[in-house]
Write a structure and sequence with these properties.
The structure is a single chain. By secondary structure, the chain is an alpha/beta fold. The chain is built from 13 helices and 10 strands. The chain starts with 7 loop residues before the first helix and ends in an 18-residue tail after the last helix. It binds fructose -6-phosphate. Its EC number is 2.6.1.16. Homodimer. Catalyzes the first step in hexosamine metabolism, converting fructose-6P into glucosamine-6P using glutamine as a nitrogen source.
């Protein structure tokens, strides 16, 4: 049942190329147009939307953070991302032109369910991104995009997260198509980039031994920091969450630009800092990230950098380098999170923890 793996989680990590490919299947029609079959909202309803609020918990919330970057960039519709448990209790401003997107792997998370009930009472449309057919959240939503990860058994979400990202990109591109904010050629080009991702994830997985060795050398480590910028920031948060929940190690993710506003005070000799380096591009992201890495390194941090193939500029600043395939910055989370999943899984295993059933956690959280 675990396909020869020791844990369901490890099996599910290795299923990700297939899960991502399945989540893309049948979406890109031959005429180049995107189609979302279960999208029960009409094009006119989508055109009328002037604000999107994404609600979710935990790992699904981090998928929502990535979605914000993609949706705003491709559609120019403002997006808020909020923890489901906070959303309802702050008297959010919603109406019929607000689209609420609820992201939930299980479809049963009580915080998220209560939040969508509240949104529907305010006459907002609710779209669910969910991995579980017939679960409560999609049943109570106006529309749904199902992810095709297959059942996720390990408590820590892995393939669930990657397929949520795919669903978010599809939603963003579909909105761009309907609203006319991006041309068909460009949408097709991004779809082709997405369709290349399963093989790219497979290439990251083929180098898992290198990450495992690194992970095992961290047994006994008390604290790890994760840094990212732009779409790499939620990846840093997700890497830190995986380490907390599986290895029970104190871990925190930061937006690299925030370091100087406080967290850099945590850096001391030998502290491992995992850095998600954005691809080199026309923007300043890559340079800014490098300067953040230099700053922590100058204070004694041991930097473990995830950077794209061919990026030699990072070499002088990396104590350890993990190579990522070349993908545009908005899609980079799909490949960058994989080594972080492998790292947490292997480190927890080396520490003797039960990776599939971490202490104090349940797979679906059905209490508020
Ligand atoms: C982390 C994890 C949790 C869930 C969260 C939301 O690995 O699994 O943080 O992501 O409890 O669950 P769903 O997506 O089922 O609503």
């Amino acid at each position: 049942e675990k396909d020869g793996h020791d844990w369901f989680m490890r099996k599910e990590i290795f299923e990700q190329p297939r899960a991502v490919a399945d989540s893309l299947l049948g979406r890109h029609a031959r005429n180049g147009l995107l189609q979302l079959d279960e999208m029960r909202l009409s094009d006119q309803e989508l055109r009328d939307i002037d604000k999107i609020i994404i609600i979710a918990c935990g790992t699904s919330f981090y998928a929502g953070m990535v979605a914000k970057y993609a949706i705003e960039h491709w559609t120019r519709v403002p997006v808020e991302v909020e923890l489901a448990s906070e959303f309802r209790y702050r008297d959010p401003i919603l109406d019929y032109s607000t689209l609420v997107v609820a992201i939930s792997q299980s479809g049963e998370t009580a915080d998220t369910l209560q939040a969508i009930r509240h949104a529907r009472l305010q006459r907002s449309k609710v779209l669910a991104i969910c991995n579980t057919n017939g679960s409560t959240i999609p049943r109570e939503s106006d529309a749904v995009i199902y992810t095709h990860a297959g059942p996720e058994i390990g408590v820590a979400s892995t393939k669930g997260f990657l397929t949520q990202l795919v669903a978010c990109y599809l939603l963003a591109l579909y909105l761009a198509q309907v609203k006319g904010t991006r041309y068909g050629d460009e949408i097709s080009e991004i779809m082709h980039q997405l369709e290349a991702v399963p093989d790219q994830i497979a290439s990251v997985l083929s180098r898992s031994d290198e990450v495992y060795e690194l992970a095992r050398s961290h047994v006994g480590t008390r604290s790890v920091l994760f840094l990212g910028r732009h779409a790499g920031y939620p990846v840093a948060l997700e890497g830190a969450l995986k380490l907390k929940e599986l290895a029970y190690i104190h871990a925190e993710g930061f937006a690299a630009g925030e370091l100087k506003h406080g967290p850099i005070a945590l850096v001391e000799e030998g502290l491992p800092v995992l850095c998600v380096v954005p691809p080199r591009g026309r923007d300043q992201l890559h340079e800014k990230m490098i300067s953040g890495i230099q700053e922590v390194r100058a204070r004694g941090a041991r930097t473990i950098c995830l950077a794209e193939e061919g990026d030699t500029s990072i070499e002088p600043y990396a104590d350890h380098l993990i190579r990522l395939p070349k993908v545009p910055v908005l899609l980079q989370p799909l490949v960058a999170v994989v080594p972080l999943q492998l790292f947490a899984c292997e480190l927890a295993t080396a520490m003797g923890h039960d990776v599939d059933q971490p202490r104090n956690l349940a797979k679906s959280v059905t209490v508020e």
